[in-house]
Amino acid sequence: MKINQTILKEFTLVGFSVYPQVQTFLFVVFFGLYLLTLTGNLAIMGLTWVDRSLHTPMYLFLSALSFSETCYTLTIIPRMLTDLLAKNRSISVIGCSLQMCFFLALGGTNCVILTVMGYDRFLAICNPLRYPLLMTSMVCGQLVASAWAVGFFISVIETALIFRGSFCSPNLVKHFFCHMRAVVRLSCLHSDLTEFTVTLISVSGLMGTFLLIVLTYVFILSTVLRIPSAEGKQKAFSTCASHLTVVIVHFGFASIVYLKPEASGGDDTLIAVPYTVITPFLSPLIFSLRNKDMKGAFRKVLGKTILLNK
């Protein structure tokens, strides 16, 4: 039990204040990446909405992922950008718990949606004849709703475990947002046990969804290898390339954050940047640049816009 027990009403986010000489530069870089991330995700959602040829399960899931990632970045980046220019970086305990809850929930939702997208590709390639019957619009909606429900269910449990007790001084959260590890270390009671528990829950969720995706791709690969023509194999692989790339980036950066040993050292603030800023930026970029249908839909919308302006 920690001796210096004080009922804290607010925390101070240390963030990038330890690098005062580069804060303005970081603001410009992060702000630019955030605008591009928003533009990419909104473009995917908009194109999926207006182009009827994209009203398929694959693009409905992609649109759901874009919406989830937009909400995910909204929970962190605007506040981070404000703190890069502000002197007062305080956040109330309630505000901190809400930010943590939504961050964990939306991060979990992204993992589940990526898993669902892998399952969709598995059905499309391994069971193409029954695919239209199995993956209906109603099923798509139910799967997306389940992803949100699972994400928020786990998040509420983790947040409740961390904020169930009081916090001890100093009130300095050594991060640019209310990251669970940084906050739980300020807990007055059993912080080590709580940190281990919430980390175990997060790692289990992360590894569980990743292993499910790996399993789907094992089945996909075995099916594709049995396709006789090279053209057929290439077409099958091309439908999975974007998803597989995003999965590697997403889970790769996430594993650095959650699987990093405590004794390994390193600045947690810098380590979290790829997962919270770079991954959401790369995701819409990969899905749009490597997707012929999405690029075709963009050209059609652009062509119609040019014609209307003439």
From TrEMBL:
Q: What is its main location?
A: membrane
Q: Which InterPro entries match?
A: GPCR_Rhodpsn (IPR000276), GPCR_Rhodpsn_7TM (IPR017452), Olfact_rcpt (IPR000725)
What transmembrane ranges does the database entry give? 25-47, 59-77, 97-119, 131-157, 200-224, 236-259, 271-289
Q: Which CDD domains match?
A: 7tmA_OR10A-like
Q: Where in the cell is it found?
A: Cell membrane
Family indicated by similarity? Belongs to the G-protein coupled receptor 1 family.
Role: Putative odorant or sperm cell receptor.
UniProt name for this protein: Olfactory receptor
What lineage does the source organism belong to? Eukaryota, Metazoa, Chordata, Craniata, Vertebrata
